[in-house]
Prior knowledge:
mainly alpha, 22 helices, 69% helix
Amino acid sequence: MKDxxxxxxxxxxQGLDVLLLGVVSIxxxxxxxxxxxxxxxxxxxxxxxxxATGLTLQHIKDTFSTYYLGNYAPxxxxxxxxxxxxxxxxPGGFLFSNLLIHFFNVLLWYKMxxxxxxxxxxxxxxxxLFLLHPVQVETVAWVSQRKNLLALLLFLLAWDCxxxxxxxxxSGGKFWYLGSxxxxxxxxxxxxxxxxxxxxxxLYDFCFEKEQRRFFIKDKIPYLLLALSxxxxxxxxxxxxxxxxxxxxxxxxxxxxxxxxIPVLCSYLSMIFWPTSLSALYSALLxxxxxxxxxxxxxxxxxxxxxxxxxxxxxxRTGFWVLFCMVALLPVLQIIPLNxxxxxxxxxxxxxxxxxxxxxAGSYSDKAAGNRYAGIIRLFIVCILMFFAILSxxxxxxxxxxxxxxxxxxxxxxxxxxxxxxxxxSYLNLGMTRDAFVAFQRGLELNSANEQILYxxxxxxxxxxxxxxxxxxxxxxPPGYRKDVIIPVFDAESSK
Length: 496
C-alpha cells in the first residue's frame, strides 16, 4: 500500500520531469543539428548509399540483402530512408532524429526505473546521467551510430514489454510477451550487441522477481534462439570478405588479447568517472606479457568485482546493475576479436547499469542524510550532472565536421596512425594538400603499412598526373586490399 502511494505521488511529477529532460537535451545536444556528415562511415551509410535515398519497396529489398561495412542492420538503414523522406540529404535532419531517439531512450529508461523503484529522485538522477554523460556524445552526434540508438530503443521496449508480461494476468500476458519478442527481433536487425538480452532477462528474473516460483527458462527459449541466429549472422557479416572488422586475435593469441583487454576495462572505468580526454580513436597498447600495467589493472578490477559481490549480497536488486554492466560489455570484450579495441560508443548500453547505480547511490545518500542535510546531497548530485553536461556540450562541438573531429583525435592520441590518416583525408577533401601530406607523412611514420594513407596518396598522385608516385603507393598495398578497392590501371607509357 505504501509503495503504491509513493508511485502515485511520483507519477504526479512525471510531466515536469519529462519537460526538464527535454530542455536539458536541447541545451546540451541541440548544437548537433548544425553539424555535417563525417567522412567516417557516414559516406557509406548515407551520402553514397542509394538505398538510403527514400523509402521504397526496392530500397527495402536491397537493405535486407546487403551487408553495410560488415553489419547486417536493415532497420538501421531503413531509418535513414525515413530521414531522407523528411529532410532530404540535410545532415541536420539526420542528427535531429539521433537526438530524438536518444531522448526517447532516456524517457523510457526513466519510466522503467520509476516503475521498478517508485523513487522519483532515483529515476530522474539516473535518467539525467544517462542523458548527459560525455561518453554518450559519440553515439548521439555521429549519424552512423543511429544503429546504437535504435538498438537500445528496441532493447528497452523488449525489456519493458517482458516486465509487463511478468506482472500481468494471464489474459494480457500473451500480448506483452509477443510484443517483447517482436521488439527484440527488430533490435537484432539493428545491431548485434543486443545478443546479450536473454542473459539480462535471466538475471532480471533472478534478482527482481519476488516470487521465485515464476523464475524459469521456458519463456527465454525464443530469445535464446533469436540471439543465436544474431550471433551467427554477426560472425558472417563481420568477416573481412564483407568489409567487416572481424580479425584474428590481437597479437596472434587469445591470451595476448585477454591481457590487452584488462587495461582496456580500466580505461572504461576512467572514461566513466573522469571523461575529460575522450577521443574518436584510441591507441590501446598490446600486452604480450603480464607487466605492471596488467597487474595493476587486474588488482583494480578485482576490487570492483569484490564491491559488486558485496552489493549483491546486501541487496540483490542493486547487485543486478553491476552484473548488467558486465554482461552489456561482453560483445565488445574481443571474445570474437574485432579491429576496434576500445570506443566511447561501446559504453552506451553499459551506461544503463552505471546510471542506475548512480541513481541508487543518490537516493540512498538523500535518505541517509535526513531532512537536515538532504539539500546538500541534492546540490552535490546537481553539481556532478552539471559537470558532465558542460563536458558533453564541449564534446558535441568536436563532432561538428571531419576536420574538427580528427584534429581533436590526433591531439588526444598522437600515436594513432589511423587518426593521422583520417586527418589527412579531411585536409585532402578540403583541397588543403600541404596539410594533408604532413598528416599522411606522420601517419606513415607511425605505421608504414597504413593502407588508407597509401591508397589516398595513390589516388591523389594519379589524379595529379604523377603516375610513377601513384604506382609506388599502390604497389605498397597488400594484395588483399587491392582486390577490395578500385585502383587505376597504368599503361606502360603513363608510368614512365
